[in-house]
Amino acid sequence: MISLLRTIALTFMHIFKKPVTIQYPEEKIVLHPRWRGRIVLTRDPDMAERCVGCYLCAAACPVDCISLQATQDEDGRRYPEFFRINFSRCIFCGYCEEACPTYAIQLIPDFEMAEYNRQNLVYEKEDLLIDSQGKYPGYNYYRVAGVDAGVKGKGEGVNEEKPIDVHSLLP
Amino acid sequence: MNIVLQYILLIVIMLFTLTTVAAWLIWLERRMLAVWQDRYGPNRAGPFGLLIVAADTIKLLFKEDWIPPFADKSIFVIAPAIVAGAVLMSFVVVPFAPGILIADLDIGLLFFLAMSSLGVYSIVLGGWASNNKYSLLGALRGASQMISYEVFMGLSLMGVVMITGSFRLTDIVLAQQDYWFILTQPVAFVIFMIAGIAETHRLPFDIPEAESELVAGFHSEYSGMKFGMFFIGEYLGITLISAMVVTIFFGGWLGPGFLPPLVWFTGKTFIFILFFILLRASLPRPRYDQLMEFGWKILLPLALVNLLITGGIVLLMNS
Fold this sequence. Notes:
heterodimer; A: 3-stranded antiparallel sheet; B: 12 helices
């Protein structure tokens, strides 16, 4: 009997509490920077594409929603000819981001991508590429890689030794 | 002729007001439940979400009015009308303010009790005509609950009748000019309130329609405006019980003179309506046998003892 009255009184006291509801379209929740949302392809500091078309993201994807085709430019730099993500299949697990050796593919805190037409959820490369370095500013894969792809010559990278002349017998 | 027209006008105004109020109570209930659960509730359609009632009504009207092929059609159709009709009939004797009442019957209280027990027919007939086992179970529960709570609902009021010496509701209100009957009959008030909740089968006593056990109980098979009638009947019932509590225990329209009597009456009624909603927000539903046990083993003896003591004191005062 006492507990019933206490319950009623406690419930009544909630009249003085602020509602916890976030009124979504008007009020937005603050998403933290590493929130896994829409997938983007970032660019390096020289505003060239970071993606080297290694297919690791497509291989890591558990729902097979990424498809791409790698190709090369005249300097021997690899880039994807097309890069397609089907967001109607994507589960936003972030495995592609973890697999990416060049920090090209990244998940950003944005989830407002609803569409009326399912086909509009298939994003092509021009939809995915952004003019930003994303989460890893200053990183340029071809500056630390051993290959010469028009960004820097062989052995000119940071912390990189000169190539060894294998035909010389000198130590 | 003039007096007849006046009464017809009063009846039409009262019908309109009551049904409108019952409809807005749906909004009020959802809003207040939300407040007590730290939410906002309906706040999209119109200012403060007030137009949700209009949206709800339009939705109900345009829904398919499905009568199951296995149902008993004529009874199935009549049942929802009975509940709203019976409750609206009870409002005939409710004295809203001096001059604003339809019939000042000298058996007003008995009339109210009779009409509120007629409401059980709609539950039983609705559940029976649905020809569905959950509906029938709900109807059975509703019938036994209402019949057993009816007993001491009436008995609890007899103390007030003894003090006043009249079944006329205006007499009961006028007898409270010095002090409200809540002061002399607190036990009767508690019993009447509990019985009233059971009578309107509101939470925590909504056993006939217990969603988690019986789908929707006696109105499982109803849709569209027929379901709406059950709904309106329930909210009219809340208004009626609140109005009766105010009339019998809280001095009806009486109150300090700075506000008109009608405002006092509606204000007090509103507080009790809010209390009904608060009960829904806070209390869990008892088990069915617990409800019956509580009724017969605790409330009925309590009502009888209250009656006995009141009778003794009244005799003592008069001798």
